[in-house]
Design a protein that fits this description.
Blueprint: E1 5-6, H1 23-28, E2 33-36, E3 41-45, E4 51-59, E5 62-70, H2 76-91, H3 96-105, H4 109-120, H5 127-140, H6 142-145, H7 155-166, H8 170-189, H9 223-232, H10 237-249, H11 253-257, E6 264-265, E7 270-273, E8 284-287, H12 290-299, H13 320-329, H14 338-350, H15 355-361, H16 369-374, H17 380-395
Antiparallel strand pairs: 1-2, 2-3, 3-4, 4-5, 6-7, 7-8
Helix pairs in contact: 4-5, 4-8, 5-8, 7-8, 9-10, 10-12, 15-17
Length: 407
């Protein structure tokens, strides 16, 4: 039996053996008895030959024994590791027995997920969303880590779930990761673990390609019909005028909705949008066609003292939803932002306008830094001619490249 010690009573406390057992001895011993190792750990061999690990400890002043599992499943090294942890916990005033009972009572990931689902179910908008939470976990997560204790789930387990679908099914994978994270946050809140492994794997996953979603736009030859429908509609005057200015100037919705009279110079037919209201953070001058000036002249009657060119009924700025809703209600499948696309397509297909001019009209910044350093003109006069042509096209009248004293 090598150097193993039979019965813990053989060695006096002062000469207690530390790591007296060997893996070979544990594997081959058959004689009934208790064989000590260290830290109160001993191997107990029954008359039947069954072997199991037991640790004897003083826990809060009381001698106790803790079973660490059968030797057929728990190696000597693992038993020693657990025995040392138990001893440290007991010396610190903790209770390894209670910790063991708590671990046994812990839910598996699947049990925890179903519990979280039930807790959140009343908050979901509909039954479909509630069902989807569990369906994705049942399909992709439970087969891989459903039976693991919620405290034992690692980043490697989460990674194994997500990697096969991360690039193939990016949206589904994001939802699965989010739902795993929801379960883990609940486990953290209950004190069952300290971390959320679903949040710790960002660097391990490849970057997903983001699908390009283009705003819906109308073919440019349908825009004039849309404007005619807008003008004939029963919508608020401010809404109709704001939408028409958006189209005539190819500006962004917010730039028109938040327009202030202090920015408008009707005598010069110019609209200067301050830098803080521009996406690129740079002041943008907008040339106004004769029709754009007419729209703004009509908006003067709406003045309510706020300074807004297009105030809503409550005196606040119009919402983007207000403009979008009008377009949709009139039967046009387009986003307000999409009118900028219509304008760009018209420039490309129906004019010989240089690209830099149409891009400047859209207030797009030059991405090449070297080119931008030399391109210091805002091409204002060329853009003025372009916007007159655009307004002429929209209203089916001959384009007049004239000074705006004739508007």
């Amino acid at each position: 039996m090598g150097d193993a010690v039979l019965s813990s009573e053989v060695n006096p406390p002062s000469k207690r053996a530390e790591k007296a057992l060997s893996a070979a001895f544990v594997r081959t011993v058959t004689n009934q008895g208790k064989y000590t190792d260290g830290h109160g750990l001993f191997l107990k061999v029954d008359a039947s030959g069954a072997k199991r690990w037991v640790q004897r400890l003083m826990i809060r002043g009381k001698r106790s024994e803790i079973g660490l599992g059968p030797a057929s499943l728990v190696s000597l090294a693992k038993a020693r590791e657990q025995a040392l942890e138990n001893r440290k916990l007991a010396r610190a005033g903790g209770d390894p027995l209670q910790a063991k009972r708590t671990a046994k009572a812990l839910l598996t990931f699947e049990e925890a997920a179903r519990k979280v689902h039930k807790i959140h179910e009343p908050t979901w908008r509909n039954k479909k969303h509630a069902a989807q939470f569990l369906q994705t976990l049942e399909t992709y997560t439970f087969p891989r880590m459903g039976k693991l204790k919620v405290s034992d789930v690692t980043t490697a387990d989460v990674l194994a779930v997500l990697q096969p679908i991360w690039l193939e099914k990016p949206e589904t994978a994001k939802r699965v990761r989010q739902r795993i994270g929801t379960v883990m946050k609940w486990a953290v809140a209950n004190g069952w673990r300290q971390d959320n492994p679903a949040e710790a794997i960002s660097q391990a996953l490849p970057k997903q390609k983001q699908p390009v979603i283009h705003r819906k736009s109308l073919p440019y030859d349908e825009v004039s019909g849309c404007l005619a429908a807008v003008r004939a509609s029963g919508a608020m005057v401010a809404t109709k005028l704001a939408l028409e200015l958006v189209v005539l100037t190819a500006c962004r919705s917010g730039e028109a909705r938040l327009a202030d009279w202090s920015e408008i110079d009707l005598d010069k037919a110019e609209w200067t949008i301050p830098a803080q209201r521009m996406k690129a953070g740079k002041e943008h001058r907008v040339p106004l066609s004769c029709r754009a000036v007419e729209v703004l002249e009509a908006a003067k009657a709406l003045g309510d003292g706020t300074g807004l060119v297009f105030p809503s009924a409550t005196g606040k700025a119009l919402s983007d939803m207000t403009l979008s809703k009008l377009v949709k209600e009139l039967g046009f499948d387009a986003d307000v932002h999409g009118f900028r696309t219509s304008f760009k397509m018209w420039c490309q297909e129906r004019t010989n306008t240089p690209r830099e001019v149409s891009e400047a009209a859209l207030a797009h910044m030059i991405q090449n830094k070297a080119e931008a350093a030399y391109a210091r003109s805002d091409l204002f006069e060329k853009r003025r001619k372009l916007m007159v042509m655009w307004a002429s096209f929209l209203h089916n009248v001959p384009a007049e490249i004239v000074s705006f004293s004739k508007c």
